Input
Amino acid sequence: MRGLVLLKKIEDKKESKEGILIVGDDVVSYDKGEVIDLGEKYVSEFSGEVRDYIVEVGEIVLFNRSSAVKVKDNGEEFYLIKESEILAIQSPKEGYGN
Output
């Protein structure tokens, strides 16, 4: 799993105060996931150096599902993706950058 990040997809549901599910007509081109595990350190595709990951376990990230490989384990769906394919870190861990 060198250079890969294991994500668990997070469903983003929007509800009104009354509990009514709001369905928009906009098309979202990314998915949201929680970083579950990281592979070993990896060799950068750009510099050729051995690198640590930028993302950390527990962070919420945005990713494109078409760049990931879907994996099922005990009925749960996970995604394997290269760290370089992660679009953004939406929610850093507590204390990050503070």
Notes: Strands lie at 4-10, 31-38, 42-43, 50-51, 60-63, 69-73, 76-82, 86-91. The CA atoms of residues 5 and 83 lie 6 Å apart.
